[in-house]
Amino acid sequence: QSSGATPNAFFSASENGTLAYQTGTATGDSRLLWLDGSGKQIGALGEAASYFGVALSPDGKRVSVSILEKNNRDIWIYDVARGLKSRLTFDPATETDAIWSPDGSRLIFNSNRKGRYDLYQRATDGSGTDELLYEDASPKYPMSWSADGRFILYSTGTAATGATGADVFALPLSGDPSA
Hints:
Layout: E1 11-13, E2 19-22, E3 30-35, E4 41-49, E5 51-56, E6 62-69, E7 72-79, E8 84-87, E9 95-100, E10 106-111, E11 118-123, E12 131-134, E13 140-145, E14 151-156, E15 167-172
Antiparallel strand pairs: 1-2, 2-3, 3-4, 5-6, 6-7, 7-8, 9-10, 10-11, 11-12, 13-14, 14-15
């Protein structure tokens, strides 16, 4: 799925091959759908809403997604078996994209709390608080977490902002990330 001038893919796959796919666009209501290998719809998750940044947990049992409610976009987690969602972030800023840790215990997400999208992390069971992971002058969009848990990939910059395009960086999750 792609929308607007900025191409976005709204899907995620688990390690066991399950694929979650979002229909619609980033600007309107959309649905989270389950498809079989031939592309036939076999189910849906939740109701139509303004979804963005869908990510399937490594075990395929949960889905994180950014949902727009009351003019605020936050990260929510769906329990796939029960079809119920729980809110993970509560900040009045916007959170749009998240990635799961390899063991499913944490999410790294972006938030514009300081006027640009920085990277934060939080336990997926909702315990603790949002922890600032990495900040600098560029907007950051988490993409992938290494299987060994040591690094994440994130992109920064867009052609629309006059930058040279979207660049991809590896961020070590231990030690000094600016080194």
